[in-house]
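A reminder from the course coordinator: this example appears on the midterm review sheet, so study it carefully.

Given structure:
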């Protein structure tokens, strides 16, 4: 924003340092207001950890974001938060959970369906971070929250001696994960939700 102006010229043009410039074309006023509201809300979210108190909110968001056959159960969230909750992050807006990401430390290379069970195997000393879920509430999407959640989790994992991160996804989201640094390793053994899934991986 006005990046080309130095302090003297900004002052002369009466543009404060914290001013935000919005360029809008001839659009419907309600669309503009709703776009602006969405941008301000996503910008105001904070990434933080979760605790057992958040389980209801986490399960409710999961149910909004995934079809029933793919959504993790409340029991699975209880188990994950109790056993390796340090690999679970949430995006909050005014205290409300609007995005989640969670994973497990593991010595396996890729996710297999047995790991999604409510008591799936994990290994705190394993060198891999398996990412089980990433979801953002529909009202908060397209504002970079998923990317911020992913960065927070990967930074934590790297600081805690994890060497690689792996996840599975459907074909439609491969491009999304490639932008976040993942490489596609082909069709996964996972068939969760009766869909064809792909194994994606990145080195940390
Ligand atoms: C996928 C999901 C987590 C993305 O959340 P988000 O907060 O909107 O993502 P971001 O704003 O960080 O998006 C980052 C980029 O990915 C792109 N993107 C988002 N959703 C996408 C999709 N479905 N397909 C392709 N690209 C997508 C965005 O356009 C953005 O690109 P840009 O940086 O070039 O503008 C969200 O759509 C969601 O919760 N979906 C339902 C649950 C799901 O499918 N989770 C993934 C399971 S593997």
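Designed residues:
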């Amino acid at each position: 924003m006005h990046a080309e102006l130095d302090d003297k010229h900004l002052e002369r043009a009466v543009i404060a340092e914290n001013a935000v410039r919005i360029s809008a074309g001839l659009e419907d006023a309600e669309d503009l207001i709703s776009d602006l509201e969405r941008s301000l809300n996503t910008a105001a979210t904070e990434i933080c950890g979760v605790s057992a108190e958040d389980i209801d909110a986490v399960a409710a968001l999961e149910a909004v974001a995934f079809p029933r056959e793919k959504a993790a159960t409340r029991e699975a969230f209880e188990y994950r938060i109790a056993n390796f909750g340090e690999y679970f992050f949430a995006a909050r807006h005014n205290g409300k959970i609007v995005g989640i990401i969670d994973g497990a430390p593991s010595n396996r290379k890729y996710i297999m369906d047995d790991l999604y069970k409510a008591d799936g195997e994990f290994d705190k000393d394993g060198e891999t971070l398996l990412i089980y879920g990433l979801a953002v509430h529909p009202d908060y999407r397209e504002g970079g929250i998923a990317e911020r959640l992913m960065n927070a989790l990967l930074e934590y994992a790297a600081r805690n001696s994890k060497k690689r991160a792996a996840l599975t996804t459907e074909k439609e989201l491969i491009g999304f994960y490639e932008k976040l640094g993942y490489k596609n390793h082909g069709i996964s053994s996972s068939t969760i939700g009766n869909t064809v899934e792909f194994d994606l991986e990145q080195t940390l």
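The chain has two domains: 1-43, 48-203. The two ends are 33 Å apart (CA to CA).
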